[in-house]
Automatic annotation (TrEMBL), chain A:
<dbReference type="InterPro" id="IPR001638">
    <property type="entry name" value="Solute-binding_3/MltF_N"/>
</dbReference>
<feature type="domain" description="Solute-binding protein family 3/N-terminal">
    <location>
        <begin position="83"/>
        <end position="316"/>
    </location>
</feature>
<keyword id="KW-0813">Transport</keyword>
<protein>
    <submittedName>
        <fullName>Amino acid ABC transporter substrate-binding protein</fullName>
    </submittedName>
</protein>
<keyword id="KW-0175">Coiled coil</keyword>
<dbReference type="GO" id="GO:0006865">
    <property type="term" value="P:amino acid transport"/>
</dbReference>
<dbReference type="Pfam" id="PF00497">
    <property type="entry name" value="SBP_bac_3"/>
</dbReference>
<comment type="similarity">
    <text>Belongs to the bacterial solute-binding protein 3 family.</text>
</comment>
<dbReference type="InterPro" id="IPR051455">
    <property type="entry name" value="Bact_solute-bind_prot3"/>
</dbReference>
Automatic annotation (TrEMBL), chain B:
<feature type="transmembrane region" description="Helical">
    <location>
        <begin position="249"/>
        <end position="268"/>
    </location>
</feature>
<feature type="transmembrane region" description="Helical">
    <location>
        <begin position="350"/>
        <end position="370"/>
    </location>
</feature>
<feature type="transmembrane region" description="Helical">
    <location>
        <begin position="164"/>
        <end position="182"/>
    </location>
</feature>
<dbReference type="InterPro" id="IPR000515">
    <property type="entry name" value="MetI-like"/>
</dbReference>
<comment type="similarity">
    <text>Belongs to the binding-protein-dependent transport system permease family.</text>
</comment>
<feature type="transmembrane region" description="Helical">
    <location>
        <begin position="288"/>
        <end position="311"/>
    </location>
</feature>
<feature type="domain" description="ABC transmembrane type-1">
    <location>
        <begin position="288"/>
        <end position="540"/>
    </location>
</feature>
<keyword id="KW-0472">Membrane</keyword>
<keyword id="KW-0813">Transport</keyword>
Amino acid sequence: MSRKLFPFFAVLVLLALVVTACGGGGDTSALQGEIDSLQSDLDAANAKLEEAMAMPAETETVEVAVTFAGGGDTLAKVQGLGVLNCGVSGGLPGFSVPDADGNMTGFDWDYCRVVAAAALGDADAAEARPSNASERFPILQSGEIDVLIRNTTWTVSRDTSLGFNFAPTTFYDGQGMAVRKDSGIDTLEGLDGGTVCVNAGTTTEKNLADVFRSRGISYEPVVFAETADVRGAYDEGRCDGWTTDKSGLIASITILADPTAHKILDETMSKEPLGPLVRHGDDNWFDIVKWSVNCTILAEDLGVTSANVDDMLGADDPQILNLLGVEGDLGQAMGLNNDFCYQIIAQVGNYGEIFEANLGVDTPFGLTRGLNAQWTNGGILYSPPFR
Amino acid sequence: MTESITQIQEPVGKRFNWEIFLQDNITGSWFQAIWVLLLTIFTISYAISQFDNLPLSTGIILGGWVIGIFMVVRGELSLKHSRLSRWLKNNLISSISNTILTLLIILVIAFSINSIWQWAVVNANFNPLETTPEFRTEEGATWGVIFGARKLLMTGLMAPEDSWRVWIALGFILVMWVLTLVSGRPKLKEKLKALRTVVNTVWLLSPAILYLFLAGAPNNPYNIKLMLIAEVGILAIYLLLWWQKVVQFYWRSFIITALGWPLLYTIWSTIGTSEFFPPINVDTWGGLLLTMIIASAVIVLSLPLGMVLALGRRSEVYGIPDWIVWPVAVGAMIWGFTTTPVLLETSRNLIERLLAFWPLLIFGVAYILQRAFKGNVVAGASTTFIEFIRSVPLITLLFMGIVMAPFFLAPGVYTPKPWPVIIGYTLFASAYSAEIIRGGLQAIPHGQFEAADSLGFNGLQKMRFIVLPQALRIVIPPIVGQFIGAFKSSSLVSIVGLFDFVGISKVVIANNEWLGLRTELYVFMAVVYFLGSFLMSSYSRRLEVRLGLGER
Amino acid sequence: MKQEVSPQLQEDQKGPWWRVFLSFIFDVRVLGVLGQIGFILLVIIIAQTIGGNFSENASRLGESQFICRDGTFSYRCAYDFMDSESGFDIAETMIDYVNTDPYWTAFKVGLLNTLKLALLGVTLTTLIGIIAGIARLSDNWLVSKLALWYVELMRNTPLLIQIVFIYFGVVLALPALKEAIQPMGLPIFLSERGLNLPKLIFTSSASIWIAFLILGIIQFQVLWTSLGRREERTGQASNRVALGIISLVIVASIGWFTASAVSDTQGMLVTKGSRILDVGDLVKFTLRRAKVNHIDDIAALPEEEISAAAFQVCVLEDSSSEANLTRHLRGLKIPYNIHRTDRPDQATAKFADGTCEAFAASKSILAAERATLENLTGNIIISIKESPLVWSLPVLEGLNMVGGSKVRPEFTALLMALVLFYGGSIAEIVRAGILSVSKGQSEAARALGLSEGQRLQLVVMPQALRVIIPPLIGEFLSLSKDTSLGFAIGFPDMYAVSYTTMNQSGRVLQLFVLMMLVYMTISIVFSGVLNWYNERAKLVER
């Protein structure tokens, strides 16, 4: 064809394509959107049906139209994706640290699996998102993760001005100070004029400043962003003392060069209640996380373990039957299956099992339950009833 | 030592002048005398202390030094230097201070090499199973950590069942490299022309292929809208290039261009839905893999972007004329000033009162645009972007990318960490590349541009056929230096929390077996980076030679 | 601006209207302008989308990021949070800072640290770079090869690895504080807690001395110019350098002794019963208590007896009285024990209840405090001579060194790493600059009989500087931006302080914008100054 006509031909073709893309494409995409949402509804329904088939015969499932309290759609998103994005530390032994194969382990990580077992019925559907102290809040605020279980302290400013809701505390901790045994320091006053290693941007740093100021102790802070650097500097002798949550100290001392050369001062500098947190604006998701945690606590209180949970399905105690979803519609009110707690205990375990497996006396950390024991055992773990 | 200029028949010994000798070497100036004195004292004390530590090697060195002096002196006195003694005289024993300095340096080097050798090889423990504290010694390295942690160091936290991806990717690169070498051989060039075309095409597609291997194709449905819009874009660009006579219209090339994208997109989508390469969580990339991915992505992406920015900065597109800019600016200012009274009322301090007059900023922007850039938005935007990026540190960009990206995207969109980092880093590197390329463009003599104009080349043709080929050849050394810098600076992503080669060391050190083996890891990392950079810079030197840089 | 009409267009204007229109549209210039306008619109649309996303995300947080003091939500209150208490401590500050200061002060502290590191780093790295660059071109094969390996090592390993390695591998490998290295017995202590150096403190009598100094300098200047004129007139050397320095020293010494003799502002509050009328009486006092005959015998006594015999004295924090008094006490070899308090009334209380036997401070403070004591006449104030400058020596007390000045290991490590790393790049630039000076210049210099040092200094370097300075500017800017890597080893530069603030306050965007603006300002100012210098040094081209 003539070279001169080519541009007109080309322009016509382009216009045609543009019209197709914008105009027709638009319609198609609107339709496509409807199809997609219907498809995901269908998938969700199918998933529920399959779960119902897989459950033991004693439970009966009834399709109930669920209205979520307070708006928000995290559960739908999680169930749609089939994956729970869980923010963890990724570098704190005992709480969340990858093993040599790269698989995440730890106390916080097990609680991620607890929430995944509740929301998705599969504890292994949890995906870890390692984060440092500064990005943990933005990624929760933005929706990149669904729940943050990263040994985060429950404070009023985080609860209000940062826009989060804190689920029940999974670990009652306090801020402590580690020093070398041969330094002869027994109290915080003994650190007067010394140096203290601390993590940047944490409540630990703030508490350290406040406590030392109120007691008139002068010190030089050595501040790092990464816990590994804090630990390394303290180990090399750069600081006289190292402060963080006592559980973190106990865990990390085990990986110092000479664990026996260090001790933790008796004094507790602040309260550190650690637990999971979620965003404001999704009351239903908050309830789910809250009651997943409570499930593990109450299960230990009632003596339900992962070993005997199947037998417990036929127990006489109505509390246990309510807990495991044999009776009542507690799960459905949140949009979950009624046996969500059964799944939690069966796949992960109750509080005691999670604690002992990650931090207990058989682990290198050897923590005693202390405040983290049941209320009947001298601790302050106390779950509201499942009723 | 003094050397006479004219030919002398008598041996130098008879005409040796002690005064001149001393003058040249020691007493010529105060500074020289003090320097020689200090050197002598220092060297003697050091040699004595070394003699206590390592008598044998110190003795050998001293002996060699004395022999060297003898050779040079004999050569000087008899006017007959062997090659060795001439070299010694010119390089090592040229004056008294140099001679003493040589001895000192050799002693220091010997001592350092010896201690490093002792630590790294003689006393070291290479057993990967013996890395726990009871097997470690102060004087020896525990290299077992490198072998033991090799999976973490190489691929980071990637799941073990996904490591086949890395092997396939490596195999792919190896095969491609071999094919490129083979098809580039001068003797086989003609016969393997088809192979060369295929190889080049595959290289062009290699980012997509490697992404497929390493990250898996996403399982998204076939997006007709995306395909059509991209197709429109490609055809528009082809049309533009044809219209500006940069590309000639051949049916074959047109069809390939037009159908290439839809075909590739269809293949991509099919692979995605077929579960051959299921997508993995890109956040698990780590170790050397992540470093290579980030460095390669940044290098590949920053060069074209840098070229665009450099050309944009130097562009002489007809700027938006005053009679369009000023009315719009004044209108916007007037509209803006309607908000000023309200802001003034509610202002609480001086700064807020000043900020109430924000429409003046519009005036400022318009003024700069018109005066500094003559209305040329392209040049203005490029320059502003380049100068802004070059004035902030890299980690602020990386950190901002990671932390702010979730805020700037639609709510709930999940961004794996490597992407904002790569984007931020690419922007950073492209600004620097743009400056380097601009330097290259400036180095082309004006005559080239003028000759191109006189031959009737239009703007795009001038760029494509005359300017860019010359400019890119000139900037290869600094650009490769920039690439090496990008490779090294990728270590900064460990500060923002990515577990790249440097960052994964923290995870390794926290492991029970490898506690605190920081030195060994850092030495290993330094060696790897050194090797990588060294290889790249030697390749660039060979490339310069091959392209005949600096010869014309 | 009148648009020029091309001849082509003029011709086409004779044709049908649609042809004119098309040629107008397809004119490159018009398309360019339309394209640029489209580009601006695109940028505005993208900004609006991003801004919309941002405000939607921000609103999902309950508008927490922009909450005003009164609880309302407004973008204007973006930086209000910076006025609240910071709550964290910073180890290295150039200005006074406590953790009750607002975030703005903390930010200033970080900024000053960054500037200090940048300026010091730039100076030192130029020095190292020049030395290494010249070494690269040395005659001695070994020296030039060493310099080459140094440059290659620096240029091929990442800066971050070098920083961490130097910090953890070198600086922290120094001995602990109690076994600090003391070169040649001087009061300089090098340990893993840092480098402790003695510091000179200006006392209150320094003002008199400085007056004398100024007088001396004026006198020096007068002497200098008058002797210089005499030199020019008579052509004879006048030794004005030696004469000037000697006269300056004489005047300064006169001033010193005058100041010491005249000033009478320092004193010590003691009880009359102690029978201490001046510092010399302390010798008898201590000898009596230690029950020895000679002051040198005290050192031979066991530890407990020495501390029992030690002179207990109260001083105020950060006052020069402590340094002044301890200078006397050290000179008299009297053991002493210092009690430091923040406020004078605390010290007086300790004096009153007997914890301290004396309170050393300025006489005015002592007079005021003495008036508050019950037994007015039972306490006297004795004078203590002071000299204008006093050494404050670092002494190990408990866990740390007290007194003197301290250079922290983080600062040292970061400075060393930056200086060495950029020294490598600058060495290459210097080498290129020196090589750019044509060989004829060096040959001519040698022919004129200039020594090697003179050749370098007077002929080569001034010309080489023109080529060296532009790339040097780039290196300086990179160095000042790379100070942000101090974050990795705990140096509180601006980035580190901003990071902590972000975490403590929860606000991210505002701090990023602020930080970026400050870095941009630093870069612009720095490069402006250096470019101005470059303009002055540049070759004037035809």
